[in-house]
Design a protein that fits this description.
0% strand, 4 helices, mainly alpha, 75% helix
Length: 111
């Protein structure tokens, strides 16, 4: 191993930062010019929400790892209870996540 072994990690970090940071700055620049009520932005929000929901549904219906041991009714019930908590709490995502996790973990400990 050479004395300058760390330069590879530095190149990876800088290249990764540049590759993503450019798009972030372009998003900020372009995003400031968009009308929040425009049809295009509403479409982007709808697509982003649909993608998040698709991933969530996939995790609930076709889980992998430890959660695959939980029965479907427990996974779906945890999501449903979390959604109700989300609505009651004024649409706070963290409430939904925490309540869903508590329900799922509690159910796994009981089942």
């Amino acid at each position: 191993m050479t004395e300058s072994w760390w330069w590879v990690f530095l190149v990876i970090a800088v290249a990764g930062w540049l590759a993503t940071d450019i798009w972030r700055w372009l998003g900020v620049i372009v995003g400031n010019r968009l009308d929040e009520d425009s049809e295009g932005l509403q479409w982007v929000r709808a697509v982003a929400t649909a993608l998040v929901m698709a991933v969530t549904a996939k995790l609930v219906v076709f889980p992998t790892g430890t959660i695959a041991d939980a029965p479907l009714w427990l996974r779906a019930g945890a999501v449903g209870i979390g959604f109700v908590a989300f609505l009651i709490a004024g649409q706070r995502v963290i409430v939904c996540v925490v309540v869903s996790l508590v329900c799922l973990v509690s159910g796994l400990l009981i089942v």
